[in-house]
Specification:
Helix content: 25-40%
Number of domains: 1
Shape: elongated
Radius of gyration: 18 Å
Strand content: 15-25%
Distance between the termini: 32 Å
Structural class: alpha+beta
Order of helices and strands: EHHHEEEEEEE
Number of strands: 8
Amino acid sequence: MSVKIIKKNINYHSVSVDQIDQLEEAITKLCEDIKTANENYYFTRIINRAEMLKKGYSEEFINKRIADKKEELKELEVRAEAGRIYVKIYVYEPCRFSSQHFRTWGFINIRNADFKIGDIFLGNGGRPALNKARGNVLEGYDPIKKKCPWQPEYLI
């Protein structure tokens, strides 16, 4: 499991020491859950053995594809990078065409006074979409139960 929290330029004005500890624990758990959700997604949706057998793929081909994907997923890494106002969650995954591919999963509020500490935001072009929080890490947020592990849930 590769989860890294990179701390830089953190300015915790108006955040208590207890909240900082709780937030760091919750972010670490969130990163681990995002990694698990991505792995589950690959092995239940992308590589579905029964569907592949129906389509006529050989057992040998399916086993090789699963083994290759398991090897790739060992390199999957989730990182949290703390800025002055938000913590940005990245997912780094191996890519056949380049050395590494990363994408922004979402953002977590640490200093925006308009929202609660720990609120989760969807990414919007490298910045958080501030129309509404998608959940809160301190109140419990489970990306494993969500439909899409690539980002926080869309608003419905």
